Amino acid sequence: MTPEATLSAFAALADPDSRTYNDKKITQGKHHAQALLCLARRRTDILFAMLRDETFYESRSVAAA
């Protein structure tokens, strides 16, 4: 995992969906750094899917509304 991805995940904690995901990982027993790496991996997967499908990001809370 690159330092940029980790920094991006740390910055994403201001987003409610990302914060919820991070908190879920911590309640599953992961340490802060491990949860942050999980979030970074998730964001990388989303970015890859966006590039593959040529779509824009749409948060789940916006998509549900």
Automatic annotation (TrEMBL):
Name of the protein described by the UniProt record: Transposase IS116/IS110/IS902 family protein
Naturally occurring in which organism (per UniProt): Actinacidiphila yanglinensis
